[in-house]
Design goal:
Number of domains: 2
Distance between the termini: 74 Å
Radius of gyration: 24 Å
Number of strands: 17
Low-confidence stretches: 310-322, 381-397
Helix content: 10-25%
Number of helices: 9
Strand order of the largest sheet: 1-10-9-4-3-2-5
CATH topology of the largest domain: Naphthalene 1,2-dioxygenase Alpha Subunit, Chain A, domain 1
Oligomer: single chain
Strand content: 25-35%
Structural class: alpha+beta
Length: 397
C-alpha cells in the first residue's frame, strides 16, 4: 500500500471517527503519527490555515525587541515595532531570500547579512546598497510580508494564510474557566527550545491527558495532581481542557490573583488551544508548550513559564533558566515515554484501541474530532430531490 493511498484511507478513517458516539471513542490509526504524506496534509490544512501560538507577548516588551522562529518551513520574525504593535514578519530577505535574523534581542533595524538590505521593525525596506543604479527599483515599494497576528491571554498567535476567522470568539466559552487567573497579567520568565523524536500529536496528547499522571510521574505529579482528581470540562470549537485537582493536604500555591475562588486555588487548568498550543494554568503560574512539526517523527518545542505576582518581578529573558526543560523530572519522563511511543507506533502490530474514560482521555477524543473536522473528506452534497407536481383538482361541473 503506497503512502498516498494510506492518506486517503486515513482521511476516511477520520470521517468514520467524526461520526462516532463518544462512548465509542478510539485511538487514531497509528499511521496518523508515522506517515510523511499525512503530515504534509496536516501542514497544508492545519498549520498553514489555523492560528498557531508562537510564544508570550511579554517576551518582547520594548520597541525593537524580537525573537525568531520557524513554522512549517516558514522562517518568522516576531517583533515589537516603534509604534508598540507586535508583528509577525517574514524573516526572508526580499532580495535573494536569505534568512535575515537569528535568535532574539533588540534592534533599531534588521540588516540582512548577505547584501545589507536594511528593514525597519515594521518590515519596510529602508536601504538597499547600489540598487539606486537599477532602473525602476523602488525602495519604498518593498517590504517584508506581514502575517495575520492575534493576541489572546498574553500569547501571540499567527495565521500564515491570513484567512482564519478571529481566534478569540472560538475561545469565548473557555473564558469562565480561566478568567480569574488573569493570565494576561502573568510575566514571562523563561523560554527554551528543543526538538524531540516524536510526532507533534504524541506530545500534545500526552500533555493534555491525566490518565498517565499517577503512573509515569508517580514520584512527582502523582503527589501534586493525581489521576483520580482529573475532571474534564466541556470542549469547544477551538479548545479542550480538564481540571487537574490538588490533594487536600497540598499547600496552596502563592502568590495568586485575589479574584481566584477557593476552588480555583485547589487545581490547575489544563488547556489545549487547537492545534498545537497546550498550557497548565495554576494559581501562581502557567507552563506552556508551543509545538511545530519538523517531520512525522520530530516535533520542535518551545517550553515557557510565566508567573504572577512578586516572583515575576525579575527581568524577563528567553534564556533566564536555560536547561530547565531538560533537567525537569516531569519533562524528562515525558520525553522518554513519547519517544518510546513513537517507536511503538511504527510497529506492524500497532492497532487502534478504545480510549480511557472521558475525565482521563476525553480531551484526546475532542482533538480527534477537531482533526476529523479539518482533514476528513467532505461528504458530497446530496442531490436535491425534485418536488412532485401537485395534482390539479378538477372542479365538478
Amino acid at each position: 500500500m503506497s503512502d498516498t493511498n494510506s492518506v486517503t484511507e486515513l482521511r476516511e478513517a477520520l470521517a468514520e471517527l467524526g461520526d462516532m458516539d463518544p462512548s465509542q471513542a478510539m485511538t487514531l490509526p497509528p499511521a496518523c503519527y508515522t506517515s510523511k504524506d499525512f503530515l504534509e496534509l496536516e501542514k497544508k490544512e492545519i498549520f498553514r490555515k489555523e492560528w498557531i501560538c508562537l510564544g508570550r507577548v511579554d517576551e518582547i516588551p520594548k520597541s525593537g525587541d524580537y525573537f525568531t522562529t520557524e513554522l512549517v518551513d516558514e522562517p518568522l520574525l516576531v517583533v515589537r515595532g516603534k509604534d508598540g504593535n507586535v508583528r509577525v514578519l517574514s524573516n526572508v530577505c526580499r532580495h535573494r531570500s536569505s534568512v535575515i535574523a537569528e535568535g532574539d534581542g533588540n534592534t533599531k533595524n534588521f540588516v540582512c547579512p548577505y547584501h545589507a538590505w536594511t528593514y525597519a521593525t515594521d518590515g519596510q525596506l529602508l536601504r538597499a546598497p547600489y540598487m539606486d543604479q537599477v532602473k525602476g527599483f523602488d525602495v519604498k515599494g518593498c517590504r517584508l510580508p506581514e502575517f495575520a497576528t492575534e493576541i489572546w491571554g498574553g500569547f501571540i498567535y499567527v495565521n500564515l494564510d491570513g484567512k482564519a476567522k478571529p481566534l478569540a470568539p472560538r475561545l469565548k466559552a473557555l473564558e469562565p474557566f480561566i478568567e480569574n487567573y488573569h493570565m494576561d497579567d502573568m510575566v514571562h520568565l523563561m523560554g527554551e527550545e528543543d526538538v524531540w523524536g516524536a510526532n507533534w500529536k504524541c506530545l500534545a496528547e500526552n500533555f493534555m491527558e491525566g490518565y498517565h499522571l499517577s503512573t509515569l510521574h508517580y514520584t512527582g505529579l502523582h503527589k501534586i495532581t493525581p489521576t483520580r482528581l482529573c475532571k474534564k470540562i466541556p470542549g469547544g470549537e477551538g479548545y479542550t481542557g480538564y481540571i487537574s485537582g490538588y490533594p487536600a493536604k497540598l499547600p496552596q500555591r502563592k502568590p495568586y490573583h485575589p479574584d481566584l475562588t477557593d476552588a480555583e486555588k485547589r487545581y490547575s487548568m489544563m488547556v489545549w488551544i487547537y492545534p498545537s498550543h497546550v498550557f497548565a494554568l495554576g494559581p501562581d503560574a502557567t507552563i506552556y508548550l508551543c509545538l511545530s512539526p519538523r517531520a512525522a517523527d520530530q516535533v520542535a518545542i518551545k517550553f515557557g513559564r510565566a508567573m504572577f505576582g512578586s516572583k515575576a518581578n525579575s527581568k524577563p529573558s528567553r534564556k533566564a533558566t536555560k536547561g530547565e526543560m531538560s533537567t525537569n523530572q516531569t519533562m524528562t519522563e515525558d520525553r522518554e515515554q513519547i519517544e518510546r511511543l513513537q517507536a511503538g507506533l511504527n510497529s506492524r502490530y500497532a492497532e487502534r484501541y478504545p480510549l480511557g474514560p472521558p475525565d482521563l482521555e476525553g480531551t484526546v477524543w475532542d482533538m480527534f474530532q477537531y482533526l476529523a473536522g479539518r482533514l476528513a473528506p467532505k461528504s458530497p452534497a446530496k442531490p436535491k430531490m425534485k418536488r412532485a407536481a401537485k395534482p390539479r383538482l378538477r372542479r365538478a361541473s
